Amino acid sequence: MSTYPQARFMLSAAHAQQFPSDQGAEVAVAGRSNAGKSTAINALTGRHGLARAAKLPGRTRLLNFFELAPGFRIVDLPGYGYASASAAERANWVPMTTALAARESLRGLLVVVDCRRGVLPGDEELLAWAAAAGRPVHVLLSKADKLKRAELARAVATAGQILAGRAAVQSFSAVDGTGVEEARRQLDRWSR
Ligand code: GDP
Fold first, then answer.
1. Which CATH class, in words, describes the domain spanning 8-191?
2. Average of per-residue pLDDT values in the chain
3. 17 CA distance to ligand 1 centroid (A)?
4. Which residue, of 126, 128, 161, 176, is most buried by count of CB atoms within 10 Å of its CB?
């Protein structure tokens, strides 16, 4: 299964005009703060430290594009859809995420959710965004190493019930490697 040794930070966009050209394939990635999104991006790409670029001051409220391979990008949506965003930030998100949803390159949405918290009502805005765009959603229940096997199975089942066919769901851990290959397979499918 491919890792992405050439993965690199491309750019931060504050406006849709700054997006890279709409060619190839891209996957949006979202998750509430501390869900383990940066760690997941690093684990999936095999490029440790890659996602740190999106956490630099000033970039945490922008759309951050990474090129994983020529013609294949991920777009980090920090804070999108979550109540912690201010009204001004929300106002800025609408045109940007509307423009993102209209891109031909957009293949799907990866959502990182802490397995101990599960899918919450606050995640609905993101799911609705992807559904309105007609794009599939894949949920990573992160930090799977923090739960016992039976608890994790319950967390996956509960998330599956809440998502009710609106998204695929799997467990994931950057620490013990749970689900990393499965998630990479999904990225591979979306990269084509
Ligand atoms: P982000 O805010 O969603 O980008 O979250 P981070 O990737 O920065 O992770 C938040 C915290 O969770 C950090 O302390 C990570 O070390 C920890 N973390 C992330 N992924 C895992 C995991 O798979 N297992 C465990 N045990 N901790 C994790």
1. alpha beta
2. 92
3. 32
4. 126
